[in-house]
């Protein structure tokens, strides 16, 4: 699945990827303990009610404590965010760490990726994965999800992961409390949306992500930049027409679409302006919401996305706005 099914004359820059993801949490200390002890992330900075975590570089996660907020069901929002490990050894260490802590997770073989799925203590979905294209490929051509192993045999792409084989990538008596590898990054996000066509019109038609797969039978679609299998997953599994979460909801605050330079940001900003969509400009950053009310930040790597540390109010100062 390395060629887009639908590519438009305007496509988002091929070097686009997903950057920092921000969550609203009820218990900051509890969440920090989980991400440090279970996933071996580092705390980059911390205030009374906020913190940034990652693997020593730019923040991967930013948490803001909202103790009076609550979690809602049957609304749009985050299905999961996915941490991409640079190799199978890194993923093996992460899964072995979870198993050593007896933390529930679901190791899964998607053939071209190896993954496990879990939730943090507040119910935010997480995928940990490593690329394994040498094992085969998968696609959604024809509206169904299919995987093909390297030997040409078919798979449903949801097989139990062979942990014995994965753990062969670890050295004997490998310490499992080593910090997460510096190359760790957010590989993709997967979102609950209210309508697939509406979401595709926004992410594909407006922002310029290519459609890599659309499976209406399972109400899901994948979009990406540069031919990657997916940077953003979309589904209607919370129900067609699901409402956005209320203002006092826990969960996703926003995720970052990280572009290679300011010209790439400006090209998308011009399209947003032409569409007449509401957005906010914060220096070189652009903030807006998709039709399902997911917060999005567009920014350039050239100005350093670690500069996105927020104020104590949880939002950056708005310098301009276009209705």
Could you explain the architecture of this structure?
The protein has 323 residues and is an alpha+beta fold. It has a single domain, classed as 2,3-Dihydroxybiphenyl 1,2-Dioxygenase, domain 1 (Roll). Helix content is 16%, strand content 35%. The chain is built from 5 helices and 21 strands. The strands form 3 sheets. It has a 9-stranded mixed β-sheet with strand order 2-3-4-1-17-20-19-18-21, with helices on one face. A 9-stranded mixed β-sheet has the order 12-6-7-8-5-13-16-15-14. Strand 10 (146-149) and strand 11 (154-155) form a beta hairpin. The longest helix is centred in the last third of the chain and has 14 residues, at 262-275. It starts with 16 loop residues before the first strand and ends with a strand. Mean pLDDT is 91; it is low at 311-323.
Sequence-ordered SSE layout with sheet pairings:
Blueprint: E1 17-25, H1 28-37, E2 42-46, E3 50-54, E4 61-65, E5 77-85, H2 88-100, E6 106-109, E7 113-119, E8 125-131, E9 136-139, E10 146-149, E11 154-155, E12 159-160, H3 163-166, E13 185-192, H4 196-206, E14 210-215, E15 220-224, E16 232-235, E17 251-259, H5 262-275, E18 279-282, E19 285-289, E20 295-300, E21 320-322
Parallel strand pairs: 1-4, 5-8, 13-16, 17-20
Antiparallel strand pairs: 1-17, 2-3, 3-4, 5-13, 6-7, 6-12, 7-8, 9-10, 10-11, 14-15, 15-16, 18-19, 18-21, 19-20
